[in-house]
Amino acid sequence: MPQAITTPALTCYRTYLQKELHQKPNSVNRALISLKRYFGWAMQEQFISYDPSAPVKLVGEEEHAPRHLEDEEEQALVAAVTNEGTLRDRVLIVLLLHTGL
What's the rounded mean pLDDT across residues 43-57? Predict the structure, then answer.
């Protein structure tokens, strides 16, 4: 029964997903968005008069610095494009690798 769910219960659920299950922000947000859509539907169908998920904020995304390829990874990429790709493909990959792109 959707009217039994409260905003604090949803906030605790978000915390549980983050702290106890150690889910990443995208996974937590996917669960929260599903709940928000469900409660939006329940309001539209007039099963509830208040959306308890409205005040619940989504989790901020983790920012990661771009990672560079290790020497072995670069060599494997060049070998793969040499064996499977065209000369144009190899030139593009080598150009991208040597210019830092």
Answer: 94
Q: Does 73 lie in the same domain as 36?
A: no
Buried/exposed code over 36-63 (b: 16+ C-beta within 10 A; e: otherwise):
beebeebbeeeebeebbbeebeebeeee
Count of the separate structural domains present in the chain: 2
Which tokens hold the place of 10? Answer: 């949803």
pLDDT(47) > 80: yes
Q: What range does the domain containing 94 cover?
A: 65-101
CA distance 92 to 84: 14
Name every residue whose Cβ is closer than 8 Å to that of residue 92 and which is 6 or more positions away in sequence: none
What is the rounded CA–CA span in Å between residue 45 and residue 54? 16
Whether pTM > 0.90 for this model: the answer is no
Three-class SS of residue 28? helix
Contact 17, 31 (CB under 8 A): yes
